[in-house]
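In response to the reviewer comment on reproducibility (Comment 2.3), we provide here a single inverse folding case reported in full, input and output, so that an independent group could reproduce the run without further information from us. The structure tokens appear first.
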């Protein structure tokens, strides 16, 4: 990292061993801060590595910032509102800076999956998409600046008083909101916005479960599989929106709508298993060290 990042930040980067379990750590708040700093550092390395392996690095940057925002929510109770909002905004800006590259590539891949190659190429052309990896790279200077600003901000966090109980409370809030978002999807299985909101809640729960470790990491595998299915639903939703009113894309639109319906049913079936228990029942099973 450049531009005056603190000595403590560099020390944290050099310690890349296995993270202690958050709830068993002597100071959970400091461990949360270390996790946030490692995620920002990873983004910095990916940005500096562009344009080589552009597609992989862009994917990693977006995932790291999603994880960052999820872990940040675990510390929300210990942060001033302004500091939390600023960190969340910077992380979202970093993620979105590379978003258009990923979306275009996914839409092209979906067309190839839904149609034969000739039809996919023809439909993609009407949407301005390329059905081959283009290895495009956006201007990295703004992203580098945002990354450095985020690192400096997190370096100044004071999370020493963040307790394990507060971390569990934040995780339960994610579990509860995921469960509520699922209910909204069950009420209207054609509401793409509701499914997108559910996907965001599930991914937050996934990343928080993995970051916390035992006893909550057992929720991560099922949340990961559900998030993947909801991600497929989201990609299909974007594609169908782009195809609306496009005469050349009627066949692709029909195929995408049919698959989206099947994916929605699968997601709801998986969600019923993952969120079978009420939050109060889950909380009763969590035993803090």
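Designed residues, in position order:
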């Amino acid at each position: 990292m450049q531009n005056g990042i603190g000595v403590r930040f560099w020390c944290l980067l050099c310690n890349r061993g296995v993270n202690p379990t958050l709830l068993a750590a002597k100071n959970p708040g400091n461990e949360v801060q270390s996790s946030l700093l490692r995620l920002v550092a990873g983004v910095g390395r990916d940005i500096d590595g562009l344009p080589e392996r552009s597609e992989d690095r862009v994917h990693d940057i977006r995932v790291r910032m999603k994880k960052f925002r999820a872990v940040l929510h675990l510390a929300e109770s210990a942060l001033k509102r302004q500091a939390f909002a600023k960190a969340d905004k910077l992380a979202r800006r970093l993620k979105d800076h590379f978003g258009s590259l990923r979306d275009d590539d996914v839409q092209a891949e979906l067309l190839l999956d839904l149609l034969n190659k000739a039809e996919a190429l023809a439909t993609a052309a009407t949407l301005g998409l390329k059905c081959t990896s283009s290895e495009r790279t956006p201007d990295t200077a703004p992203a580098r600046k945002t990354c450095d600003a985020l690192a400096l901000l997190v370096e100044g966090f004071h999370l020493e008083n963040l307790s394990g109980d507060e971390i569990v409370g934040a995780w339960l809030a994610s579990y509860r909101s995921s469960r509520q978002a699922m209910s909204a999807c069950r009420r209207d299985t054609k509401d793409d916005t509701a499914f997108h909101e559910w996907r965001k809640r599930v991914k937050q729960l996934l990343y928080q479960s993995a970051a916390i470790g035992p006893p909550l990491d057992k929720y991560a595998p099922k949340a990961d599989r559900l998030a993947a299915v909801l991600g497929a639903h989201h990609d299909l939703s974007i594609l169908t929106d782009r195809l609306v009113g496009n005469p050349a894309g009627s066949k692709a639109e029909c195929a995408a709508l049919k698959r989206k319906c099947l994916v929605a049913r699968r997601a709801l079936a998986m969600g019923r298993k993952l969120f079978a228990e009420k939050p109060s029942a889950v909380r009763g099973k969590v035993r803090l060290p």
